Amino acid sequence: MITLKGENIYLRALEPEDLDFIHTIENDESIWEISNTQTPYSRFLIKQYLEHAHKDIFEVKQLRLVISSYNDVALGMIDLFDFDFKNRRAGVGILVKESTNRLKGYGREALKLLINYSFTHLDLHQLYCNISEENEASITLFLNQGFKEIGLKKDWNYVNGSYKNEYLYQLINK
């Protein structure tokens, strides 16, 4: 049985009530680097995004899920992006919003659930992610879930006046 429920968290679809949560995340300049965001998002734009969030991954090439605790606290988000059905692959992005909720296993559990969903329900062949070489927590998270480093993109992202390298990781469904 396909499930998006783990021991401590579950993954759920976006809801209109997530407007403030998403607005806070999308406008947090400290994480713009990982999302390649350049400008703030208005509540209006996020509301429009939420109105279309129900669309199928095959149509919009993206799936964004909320990482939620069982007492219905939104902890973060996990995404499939650049969904490519023909080649059966997608990129993965994950964020646990509050630093106090990081390193508690929520990201690991969410990633494990998403990998299982991607390989069993979406029938993907591979997942990939891009991680700044400075983001040791994310590197460890993805390596522990079986992702392999397949390359280093030198001077890939221009952040605060300097270039940063970015690793490419890949997980192939055997």
From TrEMBL:
<protein>
    <submittedName>
        <fullName>Diamine N-acetyltransferase</fullName>
    </submittedName>
</protein>
<feature type="domain" description="N-acetyltransferase">
    <location>
        <begin position="9"/>
        <end position="174"/>
    </location>
</feature>
<keyword id="KW-0808">Transferase</keyword>
<dbReference type="InterPro" id="IPR016181">
    <property type="entry name" value="Acyl_CoA_acyltransferase"/>
</dbReference>
<dbReference type="Pfam" id="PF13302">
    <property type="entry name" value="Acetyltransf_3"/>
</dbReference>
<dbReference type="GO" id="GO:0016747">
    <property type="term" value="F:acyltransferase activity, transferring groups other than amino-acyl groups"/>
</dbReference>
<dbReference type="InterPro" id="IPR000182">
    <property type="entry name" value="GNAT_dom"/>
</dbReference>
